[in-house]
Q: What sequence folds into this?
């Protein structure tokens, strides 16, 4: 049975980071309807165990399925690395995950050195190790896990002293190397691009997965003939909505109003 054209696309993340993916999706697919869920009661995902991540993602998957979505986007690298197989096993939906853009970086690098920053969980995941083996076996990959960095985006501190101090710390090995590509392996990090550019103090190509995810979704929808026409977005958070509304409005540069949902 083909999905209805006006069924929404479900997008979720541990928090606000997935808005960077939603932004790309809306730009490429302006007529599609979306439901965005920020699991802020359980952020950060980067510090959860694999079992906890799978449990959270399956519960969120159930919520989104009950919203009658036609496609699910896991707008979180950590959740994708640990829970995507479980989601695909349980739900008969089109599901698109988000993984660090190692392949594009490997194709673009001239020096053969790639930096990647992500959550600790993503940096230690088998998924990332497999991506490096598959696409960057002949490259030097500087893999940095970044505790607390996604929290600074959640707090809205895109250019705060604490954010800059964390970036200085985590980017130093990449800054001192000959890396010419920097992969942002967490969907929170695209919102930190201006700060990253300032801290790096040298030219480096910054690569994230947002545009590639949007193109993948567009391809899947074209194959299923499910382009909608309304272009509405409903926002949900598992925490109190006020902080989400304030910071999401700042990140997306538009007025955002979310509802709280218990999952």
A:
């Amino acid at each position: 049975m083909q999905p209805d054209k006006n069924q929404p696309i479900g997008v979720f993340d541990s928090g606000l980071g997935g808005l960077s993916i939603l932004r790309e999706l809306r730009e490429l697919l302006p007529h599609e309807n979306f439901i965005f869920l920020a699991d802020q009661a359980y952020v950060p995902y980067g510090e959860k165990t694999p079992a906890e991540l799978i449990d959270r993602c399956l519960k969120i998957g159930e919520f989104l399925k009950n919203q009658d979505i036609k496609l699910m986007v896991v707008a979180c690298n950590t959740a994708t690395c640990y829970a995507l197989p479980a989601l695909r096993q349980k739900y008969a939906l089109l599901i698109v995950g988000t993984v660090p853009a190692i392949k594009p970086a490997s194709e673009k690098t001239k020096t053969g050195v790639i930096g990647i920053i992500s959550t600790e969980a993503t940096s230690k995941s088998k998924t990332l190790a497999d991506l490096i083996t598959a696409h960057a076996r002949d490259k030097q990959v500087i893999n940095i896990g970044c505790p607390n960095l996604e929290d600074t985006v959640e707090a809205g501190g895109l250019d705060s002293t604490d954010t800059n101090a964390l970036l200085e710390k985590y980017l130093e090995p990449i800054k001192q190397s000959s890396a010419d590509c920097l992969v942002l392996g967490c969907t929170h990090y695209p919102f930190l691009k201006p700060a990253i550019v300032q801290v790096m103090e040298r030219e480096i190509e910054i690569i994230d997965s947002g545009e590639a995810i949007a193109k993948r979704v567009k391809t899947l929808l074209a194959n299923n003939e499910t382009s909608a026409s309304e272009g509405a977005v409903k926002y949900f958070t598992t925490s109190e909505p006020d902080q989400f509304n304030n910071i999401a409005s700042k990140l997306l540069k538009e007025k955002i109003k979310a509802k709280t949902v218990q999952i």
